[in-house]
Amino acid sequence: MPKKPLTKQQKREQRKRKAVQWLTTYNDGHVVKAYRRKFNVDIRCALHELEELGYSFTDQEKQALLDGHDALLGQKQREKDRVLLELAGDIMLNENTELDFCESGEEILAVLQESGVTAPKAKKPKQGLPKDWKGHYCKVCQRQLANERFPGKGHKAHICTACASRLKAERKAANKERLQSKTE
């Protein structure tokens, strides 16, 4: 039977137990920022839990942290609005819509939100191997693998360790299939 998901209170207690151990080893300056990253919580939650664990913050420090966080959120929202306005400009150029009658940016954003238009998500950079990465190609499994996967005689024969560890008959059958598929 699967475990029941933890409630908010149970998650908080579990997080605070882990935080006590983590705080004994943590010695850098920005404890709130590090706590937020480590436990994936909001800034208000991080401040509250750190105070419960014994850290004390003045009202000015709290307000500075919260203002900085709010400023960052505002900056992100302005960037989303800018992208939406650019999108609206493209829509207005290509089609006759309700947007043509809007006079201000706020009106355009309101119309876009009513119609359900959202800003396209930013593309994440591709992860993985760079284009110029060569490695070696295994003849049997037909994969591009790192140099370390081809020890000894397999290096010259272009057979990786995984394929070399298979039985010789299996390798021959795989090669035979590969050759038949190429001729067809």
Indicate the proportion of strand residues: under 5%
Mean pLDDT: 79
- Strand order, biggest sheet? 1-2
Segments where pLDDT lies below 50 for 5+ residues?
none
- How many angstroms separate the termini? 51 Å
Question: How are the elements arranged and paired?
Answer:
Blueprint (H helix, E strand, L loop, with lengths): L7 H18 L5 H9 L3 H10 L6 H36 L10 H11 L20 E2 L6 E2 L7 H5 L3 H5 L2 H16 L1
Antiparallel strand pairs: 1-2
Helix pairs in contact: 2-3, 4-5
Structural overview:
The chain has helices at 8-25, 31-39, 43-52, 59-94, 105-115, 153-157, 161-165, 168-183, and strands spanning 136-137, 144-145. The protein is an all-alpha fold and 184 residues long. The two termini are 51 Å apart. Helix 2 packs across helix 3 (43-52) and helix 4 (59-94) packs across helix 5. Strands 1-2 form a two-stranded antiparallel ribbon. Helix content is 60%, strand content 2%. The chain contains eight helices and two strands. Among the domains are: 8-57; 148-183, no CATH class.
Question: What does this entry show, briefly?
Answer:
It is built from 8 helices and 2 strands, in the order H-H-H-H-H-E-E-H-H-H. The chain has helices at 8-25, 31-39, 43-52, 59-94, 105-115, 153-157, 161-165, 168-183; strands at 136-137, 144-145.
List keywords for this structure.
mainly alpha; 184 residues; 8 helices; two-stranded antiparallel sheet
